Amino acid sequence: DAGITQSPRYKITETGRQVTLMCHQTWSHSYMFWYRQDLGHGLRLIYYSAAADITDKGEVPDGYVVSRSKTENFPLTLESATRSQTSVYFCASSDTARGHGYTFGSGTRLTVV
Amino acid sequence: GESVGLHLPTLSVQEGDNSIINCAYSNSASDYFIWYKQESGKGPQFIIDIRSNMDKRQGQRVTVLLNKTVKHLSLQIAATQPGDSAVYFCAEYYSGNTGKLIFGQGTTLQVKP
Predict the structure, then answer these.
(1) Contact A59 B100 (CB under 8 A)
(2) Residue predicted with more confidence, B94 or B46
(3) How far A16 CA lies from chain B's nearest CA (Å)?
(4) Which of A22, A87, B12, B64 lies at a C-alpha separation of 20 to 30 Å from A69?
(5) What CATH number was assigned to the domain covering residues A4-112?
(6) Residue B4 has what pLDDT?
(7) What CA dihedral angle connects A76, A30, A37 and A7, to 10 degrees?
(8) Which of residues 83-102 of A touch B (CB under 8 A)?
């Protein structure tokens, strides 16, 4: 199916474990983004990518790693999960960096215990 | 620093009435302002945007007004329907900010039948 998909939908992990959130889009959009959403903070940009093999930090990149070996995939890895990383994570893609082209996935709710 | 904020965290309106959601921004150099709608359990969805050189833009049942003098953005929804119940985010895009989109914290719109 065409679109942007995130997996898993829900994840519970323990403090200190590594966890990877997956994001896949079928439009061949150049830009992809990872946001986290927390009460009181809205959506905050973690990392973004302008093309395959090009990534850059957003507002809150500490504790996260991204890669983009293929245009359609943009996984987000928490190298050593902490409770403060409990959040809802949204992936988005766009053919431009401007906001009117963003399409968001349905999100991954991550709980770190 | 840069900030995009919303005046009211929750707005409750009667079905059929018009809704006005407000947003303040601080970066006078932003190129675009965008409104997103987020329904429960879903990712944000683009509603409408406005370029910084415009004062008003209309869509289907929605109008966005931009007042650059006081750095204020508003979203007007005509004849509000139960399906409009959601969280609404404003966001600003500045091309000089390496393409990052900055979101406000969101306003919850509740539509009473």
Answers:
(1) yes
(2) B46
(3) 27
(4) A87
(5) 2.60.40.10
(6) 53
(7) -50
(8) 90, 92, 97-102
Question: Does the domain formed by B4-112 have CATH 2.70.98.40?
Answer: no
List of chain A residues with pLDDT < 70: 1-2, 40, 97-100
**Chain B contacts in chain A segment 35-64 (CB below 8 A):** 35, 40-45, 48, 50, 56, 58-59
A4 in helix, strand or coil?
A: strand
Phi-psi region of B90 (alpha: psi -120 to 50; beta: other; left: phi over 0): beta
Query: Which residues on chain A are in Cβ contact (under 8 Å) with B31?
Result: 98
> How far is residue A75 from each of residues A2, A41, B69, measured CA to CA in Å?
18, 23, 41
Please state, in angstroms and rounded to a whole number, the distance separating the CA atoms of residues B48 and B5: 18
CA distance B36 to B75: 10
Q: How far apart are CA B26 and CA B49, in angstroms?
A: 17
Q: Where are the domains of chain B?
A: 4-112
One-letter amino acid identity for A81?
A: A
